[in-house]
Every structure is written in C-alpha cells, then in structure tokens.
C-alpha cells in the first residue's frame, strides 16, 4: 500500500484565496459556496473581548469532552464525523445548552453570520436552515481545541468523504456533490503555528481509496502530498476562515507558549439549488 500511495500522482487544482481585514460579507460566503473561490480569510472579523470570553467559557464548560474519534483534542458540541444520524442529532440536542452557553449574553458572531446569510439567500429564493432529522436538529457550531504535536496538530484531510458516506438517513449527504464549505471562527490562537495549510488538490473517490480514507477523508500521507503545492494562512484570535472543504487541508504544529488554538467550526452547502444546509 505504501508503494501505491507513493506512486499515486494527485491532480493539481489551483487555489484561489482571498485575504482582507474587517467583517465578512454574505456575497463572499456565497462565492465559496458556489466554488468561485477556494478560501476566504478575514482578519479582525470579531472583537478581542468576544474572543477572550468565548475562550474562557469553552475551557470552563461542563460540556467539555475529550475527542474519541482518532483526532486528539477537546470539544463542546456535536460532530457528525463517524456517527450515524440518530447518534449525531441526539448528541446535538444534548449539547445545545452548552453550545449556547459559550456565548452567554455576547453578540454571537456565528449566529449573526448565519442570520445574515439566511436573509440574503431568502432574497434569492434559497432556503438556509440547520440540518435535521426525526432525532433532532444540528447546532450552529461546535467548539474545538487540538492537542496534537509534531508537524501537524491536525493531519491533512478533506471534509467531503465523511459527508458523501454519511448514509441515507442523513439529508446532508447530498451536499457532498456540491461544495462542502467549512467555516471557522478563531477565539484563541498560539503565537506561533496552528496555521491553516491548504494543498492544491481536491481528491476524488479513487484518490481517497488509494489512501484508505474513502469514508473519513483523514489522514492523507506526507508521501502522497509531497509534490502538491500548498498555501498557508496565518491566523490570529478574532479571525474567520471559510474554505472549500473538498481541498486537502490541515493545521500546522503549534508552539507551547500557553495559548491554545480554539475555534468555532461548522459546515454548510447546497443540498439542492433551492436549499443550503448547515451542520457541525
């Protein structure tokens, strides 16, 4: 298998990354959803005060859990990763009070973005809503902090495989045939490292099979990505990153200066031309 992985030549797909300072716009979000740009990095998108308070609430949350899905770190909320719909939506319902408590009386930057995008898409005849099933409804985000060490604190991966293979009981599986957008808000960042690295490669089903990651999209080997160009986005607290999760991406190792990399994460994308689903 290692020999086959090394011989596999990944197709190169150009990266289109836009970076600027200020608030994010709904037009920019829709550009990523439609596949017009690969990634968007907005610096100083929300205030330091909000970032610090969310970080403090995260580490003191009674809903803080250790991840047990092969990815090191802690989280508040629920993830669809490696779970059937019944388990995921039940966990989302249980976690909802803990997710809401991360914001308290703050102006919630995640829900504010969600509401603005919902209004804009409605004007275009498109519904935006949280994914749901008979077991419950998704949360607007989950909070994560990684503890991985080495070259990457989160190994190279794509976000499409897990959605494509989620199962017929998930309505979000249809999104995998379009752009699976990953939206990250960063309340806390280490001084060095913890950056977002994107490779110029959007794997196919055959590519994932060659790596043995057809159901998870995680992790791609260093040998497989060796010849693939990449770009790195340097992040700070208060930033927002939005990317086409179909491209391989990862998180670089971070320094041990006491600050942890904490982010609020969610996914969304077109399930139909008139429907965009949002989940975690």
How is the topology of this model organized?
Layout (H helix, E strand, L loop, with lengths): L1 H6 L9 E5 L4 H8 L5 E5 L4 H12 L5 E2 L7 E3 L8 H17 L7 H15 L3 E4 L1 E2 L2 E2 L4 E4 L6 E6 L3 H4 L16 E8 L7 E4 L5 H7 L10 H4 L4 E4 L5 E6 L4 E4 L9 E11 L2 E5 L1
Parallel strand pairs: 1-2, 5-16
Antiparallel strand pairs: 2-13, 3-4, 4-8, 6-7, 8-15, 9-14, 10-13, 10-15, 11-12, 11-14, 15-16
Pfam family, one: WelO5
InterPro entries: WelO5-like
Protein name: Fe2OG dioxygenase domain-containing protein
Explain what you see.
This is Fe2OG dioxygenase domain-containing protein. It holds the Pfam family WelO5. InterPro entries: WelO5-like (IPR055091). It is a single chain. This protein is 26% helix and 27% strand. The protein is α+β, with helices and mostly antiparallel strands and 280 residues long. The protein has one domain (17-279): q2cbj1_9rhob like domain (Jelly Rolls), CATH 2.60.120.620. The strands form 3 sheets. Strands 1, 2, 3, 4, 5, 8, 10, 13, 15 and 16 form a 10-stranded mixed sheet that branches. The longest helix is centred in the first third of the chain and has 17 residues, at 85-101. The chain is globular.
């Amino acid at each position: 298998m290692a020999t086959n992985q090394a011989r596999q030549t990944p197709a190169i797909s150009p990266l289109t990354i836009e970076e600027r300072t200020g608030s994010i716009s709904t037009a920019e979000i829709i550009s990523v959803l439609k596949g017009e740009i690969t990634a968007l990095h907005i610096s100083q998108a929300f205030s330091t005060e909000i970032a610090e308070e969310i970080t403090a609430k995260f580490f003191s949350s009674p809903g803080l859990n250790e991840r047990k899905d092969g990815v090191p770190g802690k989280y508040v909320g629920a993830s669809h990763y490696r779970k059937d719909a019944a388990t995921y939506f039940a966990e989302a319902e249980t976690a909802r009070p803990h997710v809401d408590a991360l914001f308290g009386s703050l102006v919630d930057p995640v829900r504010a973005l969600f509401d603005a995008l919902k209004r804009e898409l409605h004007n275009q005849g498109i519904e935006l809503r949280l994914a749901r099933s008979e077991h419950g409804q998704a949360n607007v985000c989950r909070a994560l902090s990684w503890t991985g060490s080495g070259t990457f604190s989160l190994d190279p991966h794509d976000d499409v495989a897990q959605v494509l293979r989620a199962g017929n009981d998930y309505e979000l599986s249809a999104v995998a045939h379009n752009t699976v957008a990953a939206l990250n808000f960063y309340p806390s960042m280490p001084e060095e490292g913890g950056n977002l690295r994107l490779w110029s490669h959007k794997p196919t089903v055959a590519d994932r099979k060659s790596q043995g990651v057809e159901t998870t999209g995680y992790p791609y080997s260093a040998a497989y990505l060796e010849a693939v160009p990449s770009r790195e986005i340097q992040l700070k607290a208060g930033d927002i990153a939005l990317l086409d999760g179909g491209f391989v991406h990862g998180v670089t190792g971070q320094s041990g200066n006491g600050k942890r990399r904490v982010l609020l994460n969610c996914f969304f994308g077109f399930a139909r031309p008139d429907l965009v689903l949002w989940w975690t």
